[in-house]
Amino acid sequence: MRMKIALLGAEGTLARLLLEQAQAEGIRLVPVTLPDNADPQALAEWLEPWRGGALVDLRHADWPALLGEPEVAALDEWQQSCEGLIDTCAAQDCLLLWPSSARVFDGGKPTLWSEKDLPQPVGRLGALQAALEQRLCNAGGRHLILRLSWLLDPAPQAQFGQLLAGLRSGQPLQLAEEWRGNPTPLADAARVLLAMLKQSDCGADLSGIYHYGSSEASSWISLAKVLAQELLARGQIDADPQILPVAFETQPQAVFEPRNAALSCKRITHVFGIKPRAWRTQLAELVKP
């Protein structure tokens, strides 16, 4: 790859998977950290080696996968650093690849969300993501915004990790039947990020907002049932767990997650040639002990 690529947030799981996939293809991504002094001049000097290249910002990429929302102070700090970074990347002709999420939508639409739908966030994180998206689009620089649906992170503090733990516990689970999205393993999201970088290396300016989610859309309760069968097949549980459907509004996710988080992926397929992979075939890797 001709383009120089820097990576922020290399300590996260999504970043680690991206680094592994890039290394397997002989592509070099250089982990970097922001300078302590993040004033405009310091940022410009720090970013100078990446002028004309690309910066992948995966700091806090795991936030949308967690159960709950970050503290207000953490969101404010992230907003300030992102705003400075967005302006500096635009001034330095540095492509900024930045993940967002379906939390920018309110979930009221019954069909798939497309890139043409206007953001109407339901929570603090979604509101900040929508604001940063707008700033990035208005900055005038090269940029790629990748909105992701449900990220399947098996970490204990993540929503998917807690679902796994609940199924393994053998206790009855109350799950929202009306909550819909695209279950997307982190490794699949990393694959898409790398593919976008590879296409961008060809020199075309493909700036804009894109959606990705593994196929097909599912309810959270349907995901749980398929996951339970995978655990049964691997001997990690002894019997079908008791899953009780409840209204979405009774679940903690209703405060910060859209009821419908299912995304249309037509644009990313048309522009980048990236086809969604089926999440069902990827579950086995996620349930390894």
UniProtKB/TrEMBL annotation:
<dbReference type="GO" id="GO:0008831">
    <property type="term" value="F:dTDP-4-dehydrorhamnose reductase activity"/>
</dbReference>
<dbReference type="GO" id="GO:0005829">
    <property type="term" value="C:cytosol"/>
</dbReference>
<dbReference type="InterPro" id="IPR036291">
    <property type="entry name" value="NAD(P)-bd_dom_sf"/>
</dbReference>
<protein>
    <recommendedName>
        <fullName>dTDP-4-dehydrorhamnose reductase</fullName>
        <ecNumber>1.1.1.133</ecNumber>
    </recommendedName>
</protein>
<comment type="similarity">
    <text>Belongs to the dTDP-4-dehydrorhamnose reductase family.</text>
</comment>
<comment type="pathway">
    <text>Carbohydrate biosynthesis; dTDP-L-rhamnose biosynthesis.</text>
</comment>
<keyword id="KW-0521">NADP</keyword>
<feature type="domain" description="RmlD-like substrate binding">
    <location>
        <begin position="3"/>
        <end position="288"/>
    </location>
</feature>
<dbReference type="Pfam" id="PF04321">
    <property type="entry name" value="RmlD_sub_bind"/>
</dbReference>
<dbReference type="GO" id="GO:0009243">
    <property type="term" value="P:O antigen biosynthetic process"/>
</dbReference>
<dbReference type="InterPro" id="IPR029903">
    <property type="entry name" value="RmlD-like-bd"/>
</dbReference>
<comment type="function">
    <text>Catalyzes the reduction of dTDP-6-deoxy-L-lyxo-4-hexulose to yield dTDP-L-rhamnose.</text>
</comment>
<dbReference type="InterPro" id="IPR005913">
    <property type="entry name" value="dTDP_dehydrorham_reduct"/>
</dbReference>
<dbReference type="GO" id="GO:0019305">
    <property type="term" value="P:dTDP-rhamnose biosynthetic process"/>
</dbReference>
<keyword id="KW-0560">Oxidoreductase</keyword>
